């Protein structure tokens, strides 16, 4: 049987400890037993989010958390800034339009991050803007947004700062309270190393005040329903029981490691991968100043069909990486550093990439990428 190594930015590898928990028989959710798990999940998520605010759990993928973060806080006719620096930023705009919220779109070249000054100017020129929607790690480009700087800007206004941290939560730092982030949307199948099925939304008191006034039509994604029962450690609808239980185990693993150690671990994997790409003569898509440790987007050699690289790595060698999206389709590959991965997983991925690049005719010294990554790992234990 072929290996199945996921170096994709979600879903990520599920470690054996979590597979074991996911395989257990289901229990009923309206029981003290499940309530204990739910409490542990809420507490653990607050630890990762570094927040004291409410956390709500929905049975959905990451986009469900994003949808709830639009329709639960805003009303038709409201204005909101959306930052588009990639595929997932565009999703904020599309969601706003779906709910008749007027998006004020900030277009950022793919591979770069938004400047907080741009947002500051827009907010000062239009005091009616209710929310600023950004992407923590833009998974289509491998760019990290400076949330701390944005939080400083948005906190002085009536607007809320809403962050899609679907791919970044648990992989890079997010200090929700210290950085004045009002809403975080995330999901189970990225940093938490679980199957998709649990969507996570955390909301500050400032966001909750907007929630109370929101007039967007909604039912399942009405976070007021979740807020009403969260103090009783409950969910309004049947949660993704098995994944919530496994989430408690995942959060235990995170706590055992410690957030700082975890972030350093992913940073080390990311930096070694960047060194490998450079040693292969390939450039990185993201600008150095905003490059993310969540995943690395590598520009492929001119004229090479990126779809073939991804397909051959997966179908011939059992190693999954992601291709490009939108205009970058066929031009880049994206290697993730999130979840249950270590340095030998990265070396395996890099070695496979080299093999496939060679097979497709790219000229370079075989082993150069692996050697560069090995050197980085050895010098940065
Ligand atoms: N936002 C970001 C930054 C993502 O990486 C993803 C998934 N790749 C999503 C949103 C959408 O999540 P889902 O596919 O789980 O709905």
Keywords:
381 residues, alpha/beta, Aspartate Aminotransferase, domain 1, Aspartate Aminotransferase, domain 2, 2 domains, seven-stranded mixed sheet, three-stranded antiparallel sheet, 13 helices, 42% helix, binds 4'-deoxy-4'-aminopyridoxal-5'-phosphate
What features would you describe in this structure?
The protein has two domains: 5-10 and 258-379, Aspartate Aminotransferase, domain 1; 16-256, 3-Layer(aba) Sandwich (Aspartate Aminotransferase, domain 2), CATH 3.40.640. The strands form four sheets. The protein has a seven-stranded mixed sheet, with helices on both faces. The chain has a three-stranded antiparallel sheet with strand order 11-14-13, covered by helices on one side. A two-stranded parallel sheet has the order 1-12. Helix content is 42%, strand content 17%. The radius of gyration is 21 Å and the shape is globular. The protein is built from 13 helices and 14 strands. It is α/β, with parallel strands linked by helices. The chain binds 4'-deoxy-4'-aminopyridoxal-5'-phosphate. 4'-deoxy-4'-aminopyridoxal-5'-phosphate binds next to helix 3. The site of 4'-deoxy-4'-aminopyridoxal-5'-phosphate has 13 residues, from helix 3.
